[in-house]
């Protein structure tokens, strides 16, 4: 599992270098679930880790600040729980699942750029204890999400 | 074949900053609920300093207690960006638009705002450029003429851009503008010898540049600003 994620991150870096301005084919990992607001989530039993996708970080630009929630904070699927700042824009990040925050990635306070360079690994944002494991059904799998990204990018 | 995109424009004159925030909140909710199309507010503020989400108030160089003496207010906001000044003769545009409808992220959006201002400046023979990395905004040489600070919630934008037509640049001496020290602030008045038309004409030109940059098919100029200024939810 870890090796595949590492490979995918390398693929993502490579893609970023080779596909400059148009039609960015962002990296999408198979084992994760995705929300239509471009967050990914990895579910392991009753715990979930999430962050923003490669597509999201590319569309944001260089992240300079990540607003993290407090431990113990309740998050709800589809609702905002924090924000990132890039290019003088603060953008909400929505939680892909509902639950209670058990850990936040403190590395992002010193190194917010990890969200750009490693969106699926070192750039993870929050870990929660799930309150409703069934909610994951509402999320997209990697194929659906890839298609969703293509359709969105075709709009302009 | 995509459906035609309309931008509704409200020209509001001088609006108090807090009031403009309330108006924007209401419009963002309405836009999110698809009750209104993409909307643009064109206005000016009385002398006002504002801070972004990161609350970088170390970039305010005078004590807050001194602000009333110079006739200015200070507000903390949720927008991106650092400290800035708004005042008379500075053209402000607050687009309340759905980025998801056009598949834009923050970066594309901000770059298009920059292009709008650059296009507008070129109408007066002023060669402006986008900022370098970490210097979002619009510059003439090393002098900043246009600032950007944006908030995006559920894919809907608020706050926006501020372009210096001929504001009193002395107000900028009390801050480290946008957190960038050693760089000047400038204005259209300073950068061109061209005869400037009335501010109403100037605002309309800037709005048109933005509408073109975002490829709107249709611009609807709303005539009665009291509709938006006097709604009972906004005081």
Q: Can you give keywords for this protein?
A:
heterodimer; A: alpha+beta; 6-stranded antiparallel beta sheet; 3-stranded antiparallel beta sheet; globular; B: 235 residues; alpha/beta; 9-stranded mixed beta sheet; 3-stranded mixed beta sheet; BPL_LPL_catalytic (chain B); transferase (chain B)
SSE map:
The complex is a heterodimer of chains A (156) and B (235).
Chain A: H1 2-18, E1 33-34, E2 39-44, E3 47-52, H2 54-60, E4 63-67, E5 74-75, E6 80-86, E7 89-94, E8 99-104, H3 107-110, H4 114-117, E9 126-130, H5 142-153
Chain B: E1 6-14, H1 17-32, E2 38-44, E3 48-51, E4 73-76, E5 84-86, E6 90-96, H2 106-122, E7 129-130, E8 138-140, E9 143-153, E10 156-164, E11 184-185, H3 188-191, H4 199-213, E12 218-222, H5 226-229
Parallel strand pairs in B: 1-2, 1-12, 3-4, 9-11
Antiparallel strand pairs in B: 2-6, 3-5, 6-10, 7-8, 8-9, 9-10
Main location (chain A): mitochondrion
Organism (chain A): Camelina sativa (False flax)
Function (chain A): The H protein shuttles the methylamine group of glycine from the P protein to the T protein.
Give a description of the structure:
The complex is a heterodimer of chains A (156) and B (235). Chain A is α+β, with helices and mostly antiparallel strands. In chain A, 28% of the residues lie in helices and 29% in strands. Chain A has five helices and nine strands, in the order αβββαβββββααβα. Chain A has helices at residues 2-18, 54-60, 107-110, 114-117, 142-153; strands at residues 33-34, 39-44, 47-52, 63-67, 74-75, 80-86, 89-94, 99-104, 126-130. Chain A has a six-stranded antiparallel beta sheet. A three-stranded antiparallel beta sheet of chain A has the order 4-6-7. Chain A is globular. Residues 14-23 of chain A have low confidence and may be disordered. By secondary structure, chain B is α/β, with parallel strands linked by helices. Helix content of chain B is 24%, strand content 28%. Chain B has helices spanning 17-32, 106-122, 188-191, 199-213, 226-229; strands at 6-14, 38-44, 48-51, 73-76, 84-86, 90-96, 129-130, 138-140, 143-153, 156-164, 184-185, 218-222. In chain B, the strands form two sheets. In chain B, strands 1, 2, 6, 7, 8, 9, 10, 11 and 12 form a nine-stranded mixed beta sheet that branches. In chain B, strands 4-3-5 form a three-stranded mixed beta sheet, with no helix packed on it. In chain B, strand 7 and strand 8 (138-140) form a beta hairpin. Chain B is globular. Chains A and B meet through helix 2, strand 4, strand 6 and strand 7 of A and helix 2 and strand 9 of B. Chain B: Belongs to the LipB family. Chain B: Its EC number is 2.3.1.181. Chain B: Pathway: Protein modification; protein lipoylation via endogenous pathway; protein N(6)-(lipoyl)lysine from octanoyl-[acyl-carrier-protein]: step 1/2. Chain B: Pfam families: LplA-B_cat.
